[in-house]
Design a protein that fits this description.
Layout (H helix, E strand, L loop, with lengths): L1 H10 L4 E3 L8 H10 L8 E5 L4 H9 L4 E4 L4 H54 L1
Parallel strand pairs: 1-2, 2-3
């Protein structure tokens, strides 16, 4: 748990496959800690565990897990789930970049409008004189 947290902080992986049963803390706690830190909060976490009770699954999603696979795993399913989470992460990044670009463009247009209003006001004042 602790070493996984340190490694995630250092490497900032694209995705984390996480068991619930760990030696020094449970995976739920680790996931919660990852989601609480700005640097690691966006990393998708897929739980892979033998625990199959509904309350375990609900807890995994409650603490920020992106998906939940019970053991024994079907590797084809795991690959598809990984691909889905990576694609979602990429789409979220694209949306965030687009939002930032649009916000910059809007701010530039607002400045242009303000400058034009100031210029028009100045011209109107000169025309009255």
């Amino acid at each position: 748990g602790e070493s996984g947290l340190r490694r995630a902080r250092a490497a900032l992986p694209d995705l984390i496959l996480l068991d619930v049963i760990l030696s020094d803390m449970d995976g739920f706690t680790l996931c919660q800690q990852l989601k609480a830190e700005a640097a690691t909060s966006a990393i998708p976490v897929i739980f892979m565990t033998i625990l199959s009770l509904p309350e375990d699954k609900v807890k995994a999603f409650t603490v920020g897990g992106a998906d939940y696979v019970t053991k024994p795993v079907q590797w084809e399913e795991v690959y598809v789930r990984i691909a889905t989470q990576l694609r979602l992460r990429d789409l979220i990044r694209q949306l965030q970049e687009t939002q930032c670009r649009l916000e910059r463009e809007v701010a530039a247009r607002v400045r242009e409008v303000a400058e034009l209003q100031q210029l028009l006001a100045q011209q109107a004042s000169e025309n009255r004189s």
